[in-house]
Protein 1
Amino acid sequence: MSMLNEAEARAILENVMKLSSADECTATLEGSVDGNVRFALNNISTSGIVSDTVLTVRSAYGKRSGTATINEFDDASLERVVRRAEELARLAPENPEYMPALEKQAYRPSPTFSPSVAAITPEYRARVAADSIAPCRAEKLVAAGFLADGQRFVAFANSKGNSGYQQSASLDYTCTVRTEDGRGSGWVSRNVGDAGQFNAASDIRTAIRKARGSADAKALEPGKYTVILEPAAASGLISFMLFSFDARRADEGRSFLSKKGGGNRLGEQVFDPRISIHADPWDPAVPVLPWDEEGRPREKMAIVDKGKVVYLDYSRYWARLKGARDVGRPGNILMAGGDKSTDDLVRGTKRGILVTRTWYIRMVDPQTVLLTGLTRDGTFYVEDGAIRHPVKNFRFNESPVIMLNNVEELGRPVRLEGFGPNSLLMIPPLKLRDFTFTSLSDAV
Amino acid sequence: MDRREFLTIGGFGLAGLVIPIHGRAVAAEALLGTLDAGLKKALADTALEAATRAGASYCDVRVGRYLRQFVLTREDKVENIVNTESTGIGVRVIVNGTWGFAASSDMTTAGAAAAAAQAAAIARANSRVHTEPVQLAKVKGVGEVSWGTPIRRNAMAVPVKEKAELLLAVNAAAMKAGANFVNSNLFVVNEQKYFASTDGSYVDQDIHRIWAPFTVTAVDQASGRFRSREGLSSPMGMGWEFLDGDPAGKQVMPNGVINYGTSYDMVEDAVAAAQQAREKLKAPSVKPGKYDLVLDPSHLWLTIHESVGHPLELDRVLGYEANFAGTSFATLDKLKSRFRYGSDKVTLFADRIQPNSLGAAEYDDEGVKTRRWDLVKDGILVDYQAIRDQAHIIGAESSHGCCYADSWSSVQFQRMANVSLAPGPQKLSVADMIKDVENGIYIIGDGSFSIDQQRYNAQFGGQLFYEIKGGRITGMIEDVAYQMRTPEFWNSCVAICDQSDYRQGGSFFDGKGEPSQSSAVSHGSSTARFNGVNVINTARKLG
């Protein structure tokens, strides 16, 4: 029952619409099959498959709305869930910010489904674990990792005739490799749209190399350094900053994008002119659903253009209130870069620190988006274009807004898991000057 | 594993907080019932028999009904009300010395038997590559027993209207007192858990928890500055009575700030928050350097959680969490060598029995009776948190009773017990503690937090910071965060107030594992003093 085709999904949604007696009704049907394998200490620790399908019905009378959900789909169950949503709607307080159901929209399909990921079997997952563990065992290293793959569909319809259906699939893999004595640790992550692009046996070599290379780290004084952040290290800081691109929060005066005296900084130069970020649901490297959480069609659009903020997130309500264009929130983020790999950036660096991964990033001050966090699983000192030795991990206190004004060079973007379910990123390695490390960590 | 949905809550301080919602949305009336005890036993017995027939040397069955209710508001609006219910059976077995687990929402004896057979099949398959047979610490069967959180009023039974009215009253009070924005929320959890095992135990438990957080924001449009202050209460293992505002539950600190223990006046706290958020807009910025810190329990709980609770989880110590949460600096050799974790003032204990705590239960999720034990005694590391299949690794004969699963569909594993700092044995008030501090900062409430993957280097913010000069609180300061190295920090503890100041803080959604599970855990302490801690200034200027 968990993966329904378009005709099956539409049949259920049409039944729901027929059963509705509310002013408005929106029904969403989502199904998924998710598989995973987890391993640690060179052994498989857990593995599983989860299947589920859920129907969510939102009914509304005027500005009162209620939501109910069910995972049974016979006629009696559909009747029950619709009546329950309607009953909750009648009891709910009026929401002055309630937005009516969307009129019929045109959605252009995006290539989010991957037959190769959908075809993954328990044997495939066990092989990924074995391919990760075997070379580590052979080299007296210790592997711990996690593979999560899934296929899903989403279908929706409303009483105004709007509807959509699309399938998607995803594969995300991470593995940490440590030396037996615990003095070295390396890490690798891969997020792919096609299982054919993923090979644990070769990817694990990255984590092995970093584990071996990070033993016997030397301590450097905390302070301001030129850094090369690998894409995975940069993505956590950039994602955090993008949470602050909310128009309402900016207009309310509680964002780094608020303007002194009122209003927001849309159209202002906020970052280095080399920073450009856009969204594109149809980009073949990072395709995402062509609609957002409110059902609005997504578009290919610029978010930051040559350092200027050219887009802020408007909810449907806030867009109407402010007379702003009502467009779907981005599901992916593509940050422009260059052609160089991380290794190329290292080769062009006189003195700096190479950071594999950032960890436990938290907001310290939303006024400036000051974030704190730590480096982890491979931090290296670079001199005259080569890695010279591993260094102890650092804690940083840095704002991505400041960081993206201290750009030295941008490398070639790579695909990463996004900042929420069904979101994806393309982030380049970043070479930055004056990145602020405030203390040392003894953690390996 | 059931479906995992996420709800991202807007609102300051809560921005980015992702709340896991398990199960399906239900109407309010569905939150009041319980499953029939006879049905639960029949399902459990069927699964136990099926597992045994399939070759299991051990089996446990959890028949669970997990109820959650969230009420979310901002200013004068109720943004959302969500009720969820999730019911099903989780079966865990040992076959050929290897664990297997399967879960089903099919609440029939056939469904229970099928889940048991699937768990046994998974265990058998995994046993081919498993190298170390599971060793379970012994547990004596207890027959049929039951326990419930000793609540006075079931929060699930309180009408949604009453809840929404309380939150809107909180918001109105904050706005009237000078707030520009306020988000207030209510989270109510009821776990109805039935555990049965081949050891001969049938344990029926009814667990309740409640949390009422808010965030107040003040904006100075002319300068472009904004500051927020979150509520000073904690999530608790209590019923609706927690929100009765009983004056006996409050504590007025030497600078007039009001803290809360087992009763919360949410409206009063929201008014104070609005005033303090405005005060924060004008407070001077801290001068970085070494300070003696006086840490209120509303703040210290989070430092305990991160720097003691997590590093002393045995699965982290052993390496099972290496890829995600990380490992621990507190390695097994440090237990043997009686590692000095803190000063001799510091005794940190674990338990799942403290009244009103989030972790309170009579039995854990593998049928072990809960208890209290020391982790750090007079500054020395003396124990970890271990469950049945880990106890032998540290030479223990029994589990500590800290096994937990966040759903019937999640496999149970080692989770943090309540971990608390024992109050000082000598009479000492907060006022008397502050009198001795020459150059210090008094921190109230939890704020930003971050710690490395082995729990050495941490950085903590807070809600309210007050400068102490020459034994007196001189006024509010801002932009404070302290950086610490765990053993040095706990060794800098020079004084702890007495039992009369003891209060619990806690985490309602503590994440661990892949796929991630959340648990709730309390951390009690009295106000404590730490000398010579490194404080940084977090103010920055954007161009």
Protein 2
Amino acid sequence: MTSPAPTLPSDTVPKRRRRRAFDWSTATIAALALSAAATVYWRDGAQHFLAILGGDVTLFGEMLPKVLAGCLIAAFVTLLLPREVVARWVGHESGFSGLLIAAFFGFLLPGGPITIYPVAGAFLAMGADAGAVVAFITCWTLCGYTRALVWELPFFGPHFVIWRIIAALPLPLIAGLLARMALRAGFARENKD
Amino acid sequence: MTLAINILLWLIVFGLAFIAALRGRALLNDGAREGAWEFIRLLPRITIGVVGSGFIAEAVPKALIAPWLGPESGFLGVIIATLGGALTPGGPVVGFAIGAAALKSGAGAPQVIAYSTAWALYAIHRLVIWEVPLMPPRVVWLRAAASLPLPFIAAALAMALGQP
């Protein structure tokens, strides 16, 4: 028996939402950075200022090819892996393998919160249990390669990022199991119609 | 290590581009254009964040960070970092810049891992702004509740591994 496939909101497939080049978060950090840079300059002198700038720019430059690769991988995966297909996979699995598959797709699917939460909602609509959805979102957040390559790597460098992800590997499954236990214990019980 | 990662990543890029090309020229062009534009759009933010976090780390007195978040701060440091992560507002540039600045100015790696894990999983503003409008609320709160212990587990694992 197959239920009619609910469709995803149109803005989730396949194009990602355009990002503005500037926003308030970045402006805040820019203001903080400028005052910090000024502090360093007046307190420690121009030489120390340039040494820090040089070190950061070098590290950043080394990471740029990886950031570009991350963006391209995300763009191609978005085009090649229709989200409806993923939703059907995750929605029809259950048990521990359901958690594993959900976590795997959490790792695989690129995109920001605007695209990932509607996909997670579609999992629910296609019959996935809340535990699988929790594993999916947790893995996307903690182990997803887009976020790691594009955001985390330029800030922390490969050594830190790789070990952070290794420490995070069991977490999606733990979160999924905890969510199932909480559901069984009566937390956030679904209203029966 | 950084060269090996580069080679692996670009092999994946070319593999995916090849599959896209097999499905049609238009798909290949779309993917390449989307990816390149995303990169260009993100570049200013990441630059500001990375360079900024270096200066913020340098400007913050190290004597202030070490007792609260340093490697010797132990479990208390992990709790402080987790609370800090949950309360940090803003997009990725803010969370990663603060985490990187803390690490550079003497915070311990397990504490920084707890901070970024908490920030990524249950930063309160993100739950309210992104997740609640897009998901059934009961699932949002269930996910947040199930995530509560995760920063502590991640920090404990990092301590047990002795890395990074």
